[in-house]
Amino acid sequence: MAGDPVPRLPPLLEAVLSVGSELELRTTLQRIVDGAAELTGARYATLGPADPGQDGLTEIRTGEPPPAAPAGAPDVPVPDAPVLDVPILVDDEPFGRLRLAGKRGGGPFTAEDEQLLRVLATQAGTAIGNARLYEAARQRERWIEGAAAVTTALLSGESAQDALATVAERARLLADAAAGVILQPTPEGGMEIVTASAYDDPGDLVGTTIAPGSPVLEQLLGGEPVFIEDSATDPRMTTHVRHRFGPSMMLPLQAEGQLIGTLALPRRRGDRPYTAVERRLAGQFASQAALALVLAGARHGRERLAVYEDRDRIARDLHDLVVQRLFATGMMLQAARRRARVPVVSDLLSRAVDELESTVQEVRTAIFALQQQPAEAPATLRGRVLRETAGAAAVLGFPASTRFLGPVDSLVPERTAGHLLTALRRALATATRRPDVTRLTVTVDTTATLPNGRPAVRLTVHTDNHPPTTWQAPL
């Protein structure tokens, strides 16, 4: 090696090849620092990014700082400590500075050391650019796959609450955030956390609200993203959970001009800030998720409409076929009863007519129930009675029989209806506590009369083996 005109060329080539052989950014930077120290004989080397937030990186180091150089500030000139410092450019833009300190053997760094370091820094700039492109491509691929997975999950038939939880969970994992939360507008003009996903128990995150008038809220309601360096100290953050988190981004879930809510992705205090690439990819994910939520909602709406149309068809068939045939059969039985000569036969026919009338009432009640929308609170007295009776039937474990006599919805005033429902709930509560109940019949009769002859509405709740419970009020 003594006759070699460039005796340190092989180590330089080895360092250059080592730097260029890695695509992961942090590993690339570590190889640059290690190679610089090995090439120049430095005891200590650091690479400090000019903008840590761009790549989410902090200072990369190797070796032990010389005793005269403070460990936390290698860029500070220290007497009698040899220092070498060169910039690293990526696409002609400053990336950071490569600093060496403490030449082995105690001598100064030479001009040849500096020249070798500059060659290595040039190659490092190219390697860093390639690693950035590779990392951006990997991140983009992960976020695209995540958005596709969310879309598939939302369109597979999840409920609205499960859909929001899916978005929050997937976004938290993709962003490497401490939590993923969904906020939705409140009637008062604020926003409330309705879904939360966290590494640990989300605790009291759900239900946390942002009060109306908050600067952050104004941006979110306007469809603008909000990026925060430290949630605990940012004056714009006013929630009681802000002290738990550091860097955060809050992204509007907006599609087709509709603001569904906000996706917030806070990291823990002290965690690295979000990079520009992460912010952009998360924003694209939020837009895709919002569109998927809208499409999922539209799909659920179409499915519900199909169910209602099918139920309307069944109700029409019941009314046009079953009720009419039962009515005709009853008329024939009544005619036969009038002609019957034997008392026993007449009594049997009378009982059959009564049973048919009762069956017609129950079928009509079933038709009415089919025409109701179960997701909405019923507005009519008939619907509210059916809802209360269905709840008791679910507890008892068998269907209840409900009959309505007369125009219930038009005759019973709202105040009287409220009292009737209160009496019904009490009677049903008593019935569900009885261990031997196998049959439950509820009758609301608006053709009843009081002893003084005044028209009345009468509620009767009957269970087998027990006297009926009766309540009535004047109309």
Automatic annotation (TrEMBL):
Keyword Transferase: yes
UniProt key word Cytoplasm: no
Entry's Gene Ontology cellular component terms: membrane
GO molecular function: phosphorelay sensor kinase activity; protein dimerization activity
Region (Disordered): 46-77
Highest taxon of the lineage: Bacteria
Protein name: GAF domain-containing protein
Organism: Streptomyces echinatus
